[in-house]
């Protein structure tokens, strides 16, 4: 009846599936063995090359004096590798270096500020089917999403350049704030007030060290995230400060706008007796 | 000094391990060095805490100062609490010039406008972490200082770390205040939880070790392998395989320490696939099951599975994607299509 028929069909299907599986397994086995053959061939070639090199060496040593002007293949290779490595080192030092990966390219951004190397960050890009970021180590407060939305698809170079500017400027701002905190903490009241991007710094300070009063109040706003100098500086005097200091405050305001923060402090803390 | 404040300070000091009490009181800065000298820190904790309360009486401590001591304790022993991660979303693209004074003002104002009886305290740390402690009351009762919520926020980031108290009913208000104060629009909890606050930060701030391919050579010392066995008679079988496993593990996990998570949970809603002959729930409904991996340090143990020979390398991407996807709760559904497999829902 119907059941018997169904049972027969089931058996047929099962057998067909088994045959199919056997076939697949065979094919897999063949592919694997082919791969193995390739591997062994490669190994054989490598060993051959090694043997040749050894023989050449032995001939060179035992036989006639080897020509010192003629460099051996080994030496040439080593020189090439060395020059490549130094080329890569140069690229690394300029700030952006990249390495091709299986799926795309991995960029390394190295930041620096006025001769001091600071942190490095990475962006791993996939190029097909469209350019996108696979993973990265960019700090979360850098507007990476914004930047990639604007540039990544159209122009990778531009994207890297803008990202580099952001990271480098951030590193510079943070470096200045750290330097100020580290070397001029005796000029500042308490600790420097800052934020993650270091684009707002607020502090009270004095030109002389270890003074009990801090007549100057500074508020530095870095409106452009790609710059490490402030776009807006407000230096005011506390209400009980002598009126003469107002001029100094104005001078400091210009100073902060035009040079690195810790350098500005260095300049007026060492010449405190000179009124600018 | 208020009785309740005295009791609260006493209980807080009792929580601190005896050897740490002096350092913590120094960090607190409320009692002078001279006052601290008068305390015998070798006596039993009961007595130490009594002495501390006595000195706080002299200085007229109020709940605000007591709350600061509590924040300091929780900052050092943050791993005693379970932390959840929340993500905020912004609509606009304007550059944020985050001002902490305005943040604190907006946050307090938002909370107090909805609930008069709250104690709110802030403490900033050098790594730009802003710790907020909130003790909740009701319109008719004073804030319960023993069930405070703690929030950790880094300015100009979309992530907030919250260790809420048992009173989850205050969570919506807390979220609202955070969004308003930080100039975001929306906030939701993400599927990431752990006792290790720093590991959570490492994961979402992408500070954990990822193995990026670069040309910059790593210092050679790092690549020193243990000296090979001098005895030539000992051969390492499967040396190639061992090296392959090491390489793959390094590629996936990087060579630095892993963020510390205690568990990963997978909720399966996939079809149970069995041998057609066995006729067990075959393709009728999704087989609901929950798989939970627990460990004192989950990611480190996953990293050591393949080198220890307990699993094949590479490990399943469901396990290795945890830091990248910033989650340790997953829902796995059936993939619709020709090949029944599984796909992880976003």
Question: Could you explain the architecture of this structure?
Answer:
The complex is a heterodimer of chains A (276) and B (346). Chain A has 276 residues and is an alpha+beta fold. In chain A, the strands form two sheets. Chain A has a four-stranded antiparallel sheet with strand order 1-2-3-4. In chain A, strands 5-6-7 form a three-stranded antiparallel sheet, covered by helices on one side. Among the domains of chain A are: 81 residues, Copper Amine Oxidase, Chain A, domain 1 (2-Layer Sandwich), CATH 3.30.457; 94 residues. In chain A, helix 3 runs antiparallel to helix 4. The longest helix of chain A has 61 residues. The termini of chain A are far apart. Chain A is elongated and about 105 Å long. Chain A contains six helices and seven strands, in the order H-H-E-E-E-E-H-H-E-E-E-H-H. With 346 residues, chain B is an alpha+beta fold. Chain B has three domains: 76 residues; 110 residues, Double Stranded RNA Binding Domain; 90 residues, Ubiquitin-like (UB roll). Chain B has twelve helices and ten strands. In chain B, the strands form two sheets. In chain B, strands 2-3-4-5-1-6 form a six-stranded antiparallel sheet, with helices on both faces. Chain B has a four-stranded mixed sheet with strand order 8-7-9-10, with no helix packed on it. In chain B, helix 1 packs across helix 4 and helix 6 packs antiparallel against helix 7.
């Amino acid at each position: 009846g119907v059941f018997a028929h169904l049972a027969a069909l089931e058996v047929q299907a099962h057998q067909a599936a088994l045959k199919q599986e056997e076939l697949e397994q065979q094919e897999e086995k063949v592919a694997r063995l082919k791969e193995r053959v390739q591997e062994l061939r490669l190994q054989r070639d490598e060993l051959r090359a090694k043997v040749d090199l050894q023989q050449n060496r032995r001939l060179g040593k035992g036989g006639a004096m080897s020509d010192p002007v003629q460099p051996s293949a080994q030496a040439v290779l080593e020189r090439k590798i060395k020059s490549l490595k130094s080329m890569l080192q140069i690229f690394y030092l300029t700030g952006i270096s990249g390495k091709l990966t299986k799926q795309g390219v991995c960029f390394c951004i190295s930041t620096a500020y006025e001769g001091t190397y600071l942190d490095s960050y990475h962006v791993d890009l996939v190029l097909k089917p469209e350019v996108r970021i696979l993973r990265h180590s960019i700090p979360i407060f850098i507007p990476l999403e914004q930047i990639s939305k604007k540039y990544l698809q159209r122009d990778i170079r531009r994207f890297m350049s803008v990202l580099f500017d952001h990271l480098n400027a951030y590193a510079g701002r943070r470096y200045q704030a750290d330097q100020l905190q580290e070397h001029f903490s005796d000029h500042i009241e308490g600790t420097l007030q800052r934020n993650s991007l270091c684009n707002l710094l607020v502090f009270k300070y004095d030109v002389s060290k270890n003074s009990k009063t801090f007549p100057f109040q500074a508020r530095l706003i870095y409106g452009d995230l790609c710059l490490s100098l402030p776009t807006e500086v407000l230096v005011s005097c506390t209400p009980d400060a002598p009126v003469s200091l107002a001029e100094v405050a104005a001078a400091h305001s210009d100073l902060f706008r035009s040079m690195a923060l810790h350098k500005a402090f260095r300049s007026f803390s060492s010449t405190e007796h000179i009124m600018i | 000094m208020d009785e309740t404040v005295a009791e609260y300070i006493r209980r807080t000091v009792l929580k601190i391990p005896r050897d740490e009490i002096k350092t913590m009181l120094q960090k607190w800065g409320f009692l002078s060095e001279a006052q601290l000298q008068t305390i015998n820190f070798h006596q039993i904790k009961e007595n130490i805490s009594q002495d501390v309360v006595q000195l706080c009486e002299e200085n007229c401590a109020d709940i605000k100062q007591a709350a600061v001591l509590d924040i300091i304790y929780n900052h050092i022993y943050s791993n005693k609490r379970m932390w959840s991660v929340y993500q905020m979303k912004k609509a606009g693209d304007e550059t944020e010039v985050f001002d902490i004074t305005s943040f604190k003002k907006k946050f307090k104002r938002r909370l107090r406008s909805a609930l008069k009886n709250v104690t709110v305290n802030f403490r900033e740390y050098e790594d730009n972490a802003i710790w907020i402690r909130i003790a909740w009351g009701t319109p008719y009762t004073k804030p319960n200082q023993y069930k405070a919520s703690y929030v950790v926020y880094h300015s100009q980031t979309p992530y907030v770390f919250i260790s809420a108290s048992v009173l989850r009913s205050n969570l919506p208000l807390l979220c609202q205040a955070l969004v308003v104060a930080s100039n975001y629009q929306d906030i939701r909890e993400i599927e990431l939880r752990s006792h290790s606050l720093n590991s959570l930060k490492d994961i979402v701030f992408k500070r954990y070790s990822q193995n990026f391919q670069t040309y910059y050579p790593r210092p050679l010392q790092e690549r020193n392998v243990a000296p090979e066995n001098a005895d030539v008679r000992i051969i390492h079988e499967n040396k190639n395989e061992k090296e392959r496993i090491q390489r793959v593990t390094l590629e996936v996990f990087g060579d630095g320490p892993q963020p510390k998570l205690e568990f990963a949970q997978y909720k399966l809603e996939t079809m149970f696939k069995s041998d057609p002959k066995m006729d067990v729930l075959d393709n009728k409904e999704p087989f609901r099951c929950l798989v939970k991996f627990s460990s004192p340090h989950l990611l480190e143990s996953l990293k050591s599975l393949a080198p220890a020979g307990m699993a094949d390398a590479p490990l399943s991407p469901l396990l290795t994607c945890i830091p990248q996807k910033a989650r340790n709760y997953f829902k796995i559904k059936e993939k619709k299509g020709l090949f029944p497999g599984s796909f992880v829902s976003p």
